[in-house]
Structures are given as structure tokens and as C-alpha cells.
Amino acid sequence: MKVYKFGGASVKDAEGIRNLATIVTEESDNLVIVVSAFGKTTNALEKVLKAWLSGEDKYNALLDGVYIGHLSVVMDLFGQGTEVKGKIDVSFALLRDYLLTSLKGEYDFEYDQVVSYGEIWSTIIVAEYLKKNFQYVEWCDIRENLLTDDRYRDANVLWSESTKRIQSIFNFRKERIYVTQGFIGGTSVGHTTTLGREGSDYTAAILANMLDAECVVVWKDVPGILNADPKWFPDARKLDEISYKEAVEMSFSGAKVIHPKTIKPLHNKNIPLYVQSFLNPEENGTVIKFDATLRKIMPVFIRKEDQILISILPKDFSFVMGDNLSRIFHTFITHGIKVNLVEASAVSIDVCVDDERAKIDILINDLKTEFAAVYNDKIEMLTVRHYTPEAIELVTRGREILLEQRTRSTVRFVVREDPSVAARHLP
């Protein structure tokens, strides 16, 4: 069996779902199909959540807009008077009732209860459309089978119990195709959790591991994994194959094609991952596998935007290493702030993190009794794998370098951009 994952861009409208069905038609093996929320739905539900938590009545109008978008897809695919509309109406009613009657809790908890509905709606529609075209299709609610802890918005999978449930539910005794949700899971007491933003790739890898899949295919709107974001470098080139290690390095540095947690479950069972274009499914994409080699070594450029560089100094000028370092990083972990880069000296530590301002303000407040902290915002972290002098000059030209790190194969820069510099092009 294989695991297919379709992201939000691939199912953003009725035509995208028809295209999904065409791709599935070409596959004769048993399939688990993992589907994200329709394009932009997660962002729209985040706005609903923000308005609801702020006590603004407009959350209802915002939710109406999300409903109208999904209803238009249902009408296009199924026409009037369909049972699918009834299922979508029931699910939207459940969310409306939750927003009307529930006491507002912590943001991360409420985020998972509200935003997770996007994946429920998309998979209901996709599953029902596939049932029109294929026999033996089943919709599964992953929240009842992929169990996690209660670390909301970044939940950890409880592997032992989840594996038992997943293998029991996705057994292929009667069905050939299962459709389920990416990004979400559930606690043992029935609360919905999410696995981190863009976590549907990770869900696909988890299911592949638990079900001993032949491979995972992630369908994207790009021809494969490129050596740069085409929005940054329009002349970016495709990498035909890369190793698990290379994929981990790229995703950790900020490459957006694959979720950072995706590789480990696949590596553990030597399951290859294919990244292919849903726009041109007949073309070869990129394969990530154990024994891959870069047939032609070329620099790989990765940009991680919306970063903050925090400099932390002990107020008594004691060494930052040892116990001080342990306390500092424990505080980061406690507040759920992931560190993207660290540079330590005798009396200071520089940390580059995502710009989650509310969490960072609380973090700095917690540290202020022992440490002084300053930060630079509106910065980027630029990474070049397999760097050359020309590649370094290309990404740093016209930028103020705040911090630099080098290893044998990777160089990272924390920079501020000069807006007057012209567009860059790959050599």
C-alpha cells in the first residue's frame, strides 16, 4: 500500500478535487489519502478564532464566508439536494454550537478545537467525491485513532497506542482507499490536537510508518524539491533525489516543501518519499531516500523569514554556559519557542527564533530578573547548503549580516535586507 498526501493548494476548488481523483485513477495499489484543509481555510479559521476570543460578533460573518466557500465546492461537484451538503451543514453546526456555548480557554487549546475543522470538511468532500468514482472508499476520523499528548498546537504522538488503532482501522479488508485528515490528532479524553502548522506531511509519514507503506507521495504545486524557493529565485532548479539527511537539513533550515518532522518516521523504516507535481503528475519529481546522492552538487538556498534575533546576557557578567545555559533553554521550551539558530560566547547567547511576539515578550519577562535581553526583529535567516563563494555573495549582497555560522557543508546568515538591492538570480 501507499500513502498519498494532498495539500491545501491541490484541493482549493472543485477542479482540484477532480484532478485529485484523476491522479488516484492511475494508482492500482491500496491507498491511504491524507488531505489538508482547502487552500486558505486554515488562515480563515484563525481569523474566526481571533474574533471569537476577542468577543467580536464578526466571527459569525467570517465563518459564514468559510461555509459559502465550501458550499460552492459541494454544489459544483455534487449539484443540488445532495447528502454531502447535509454532512457539511452538520459539521459547521457543531462548530457554531461550540463557539456559542463554550467558555473561552487558553489560546493554544481553542486553536486546535476550532482550526482543526478545516481538515474535517475537506476530507468529507474528497471522500464523497471519490465514492462517486471508485468502489471501497472509506472516510476515517483520524482524531479517534492518532492519539497524542495535550501539547496543543504542537502535539506529540503516542506511538504505541496509536499504532494499534491505526493498524486496526486501516486494515484494507473491505476498502481499497481510505481518506483521512492531516495535521490533526486527539487526546485520550477526546480533545482535538494539531501537530504543528503544515503538519499534514508529518501525518502521512506517521501513517506510512505504522502501516509499513511502500512509499509516501506528497503532491505539490511545484515539480519537486527545488534548490531554492521559486518565489525568491525564479530560476530555481529541481533536485532529482536527495538523502534523508539532506532533507532534514533543508527542512530544519526553513525549506517549506517538507514539514521538519516528516523524515524520521520514514527513515526508521526506510520508506521513500516522492514529491511530485499535481499539475503535471506524469513528470518525475524528487525522491527522498536512504541511498540518494546529488548527481550534480549545486548550492541549495533556503530563506526563513519573520525571524527575531534575541541576545541574552547575565546581568552579573557571569559565564552564560553551564547552569545559566540550561535555565535559558528550559525557559524557551516551557514557552513553546523553537530555536532555529544558537551562537554562544562567554558572557552572552544569541538565539534566532520565529517571530511569535506574544510568547517572546513573556519569555523575556521571565528572564529579566537574572538576564538582560535585546532583540532585532524584521530579519531573515539565510542558509546555503553546499556553498560556494559565488553562492554566498549572491545571498549576502546588499544585506547587513548580524550573525554568521559555518560548517563544512552549510553556512547560515542572520541578516537584514536592503530594499534597494535588485532581484537576485541563480548563477
Give start-end ranges of low-pLDDT stretches.
Answer: 421-427
Helix-residue proportion: 25-40%
Shape: globular
Might you state the CATH topology name of the largest domain? Carbamate kinase
Q: Indicate the multimeric state.
A: single chain
Q: Mean pLDDT, nearest integer?
A: 92
CATH level 1 name of the largest domain: Alpha Beta
Strand-residue fraction?
15-25%
- Could you give the order of the helices and strands? EHEHHHHHEHEEEHEEHHEEEHEEHEHEE
Would you kindly provide a written description of the structure presented here, covering whatever features stand out?
- The chain has an 8-stranded mixed β-sheet, sandwiched between helices. Strands 12-13-11-14-16-15 form a 6-stranded antiparallel β-sheet. The chain has a two-stranded antiparallel ribbon with strand order 5-6.
- The chain has helices spanning 14-25, 41-53, 59-78, 83-101, 107-115, 117-133, 159-169, 200-211, 244-253, 263-268, 323-334, 357-367, 389-396, and strands spanning 2-6, 31-35, 137-139, 177-181, 184-186, 192-194, 215-220, 241-243, 273-277, 286-289, 300-314, 339-344, 349-354, 371-385, 399-406, 410-417.
- The chain has 427 residues and is α/β, with parallel strands linked by helices.
- It has 13 helices and 16 strands.
- It has 2 domains: 2-220, Acetylglutamate kinase-like (Carbamate kinase, 3-Layer(aba) Sandwich), CATH 3.40.1160; 300-417, 2-Layer Sandwich (VC0802-like), CATH 3.30.2130.
- The longest helix is centred in the N-terminal third of the chain and has 20 residues, at 59-78.
- Helix 3 (59-78) packs parallel to helix 6 and helix 4 (83-101) packs antiparallel against helix 6.
